[in-house]
Write a structure and sequence with these properties.
Structural class: alpha+beta
Order of helices and strands: HEEHHEEEEEEEEEEHHHEEEEE
Largest sheet: 15 strands, mixed
Number of strands: 17
Distance between the termini: 53 Å
Shape: elongated
Strand content: 35-45%
Number of domains: 2
Helix content: 10-25%
């Protein structure tokens, strides 16, 4: 049996501890899964009643017997008092160049990726060392912030449906019933093969989604294949960017305020059902402006 529990069990365990390690003074959102009743060595199981979410450090201590079964069970109480009703973390990725892939579109060297009127929805800043940092807000439909990301530091309201932060991979997923959607953010090295693969996937999806009238109108013309289009887009994205001094940030989900914007894997859907896919916004102050 795989020691990592299935998603439905992980979701229960995260909520039980309020999305943060329950050991006093810790509250780390980077959680792992400790089997204690019975221990994994006695019986391999994925019963959430006999498991608790702990950070990696305290999980290791629990494996060595630092906590009794009664203490571990008491940790599974989301109503216990907390000093802070919001949970915090940081993306430690700091690079000269941040490549953003959001809604099947690419942004490089753009100060503001998405803006509605005067309100930036996704934007970049720079620290004292010149590294590009990510900023965005996730509001509910009343304009109340549920996730705020400033200069790679994030704060999430505990009153969300789910918060998943992986210990080793730089990834964050926020799900909230009030929004009816999830927002995921992940960072990784901007390896050329990874960028090419993603660009080709987006081109293939765009080809599949072409309206029939476009196919009929251009059917007699030879169009580049999705592989050719994706490879060409990736080359333009990576032009002048070194893998060592760059990072790829992928954002998917839905922003609900001040307007609704869907960042789907292969396209961005703006108000009025306007869609964009496979585009590249480069060297501009504002990538997409919504008036």
């Amino acid at each position: 049996m795989n020691r990592t529990p299935p998603e439905d069990v992980r979701r229960v365990l995260r909520r039980e501890v309020g999305f943060g390690c329950p050991i006093e003074g810790c509250d780390s959102p980077y959680l792992s899964w400790h089997h204690f009743d019975p221990p994994w060595a006695e019986r391999e199981h994925q019963d959430p009643d006999g498991m608790v979410a702990l950070c990696v450090l305290h999980h290791g201590q629990a494996d060595e017997g630092a906590f009794t079964r009664d203490q571990l069970r008491a940790f599974k109480d989301p109503t216990r008092n907390r000093a802070d009703q919001r949970i915090k973390g940081t993306f430690h990725w700091r690079r000269d160049r941040l490549i953003l892939l959001a809604g099947g579109n690419w942004w490089t060297q753009c100060e503001i990726l998405l803006r509605c009127g005067p309100i930036p929805m996704i934007w970049l800043s720079r620290d004292a060392d010149g590294y590009e940092l990510l900023n965005l807000d996730l509001f509910d439909d009343r304009g109340v912030p549920r996730l705020q990301l400033r200069d790679n530091d994030w704060i999430v309201d505990r009153e969300v449906e789910d918060l998943e932060v992986t210990p080793r991979k730089a990834a964050l997923v926020v799900r909230t019933a009030m929004l009816g959607a999830a927002l995921s953010i992940s960072f990784e090295r901007a390896a050329p093969d990874k960028v090419i693969k993603k660009a080709i996937e987006i081109s293939r999806a765009g080809e599949r989604d072409l309206p029939d009238w476009v196919r009929e109108r251009h059917g007699t013309y030879e169009r580049p294949s999705p592989e050719e289009t994706g490879t060409s887009t990736a080359a333009r994205v990576l032009e002048g960017i070194s893998e060592e001094n760059s990072a790829l940030c992928v954002i998917e989900g839905k922003l609900r305020w001040p307007v609704e914007v869907a960042l789907e894997p292969a396209r961005i859907v703006l108000p009025g059902n306007n869609t964009f896919s496979g585009g590249l916004m480069k060297n501009s102050s504002v990538g997409i402006q919504i008036n």
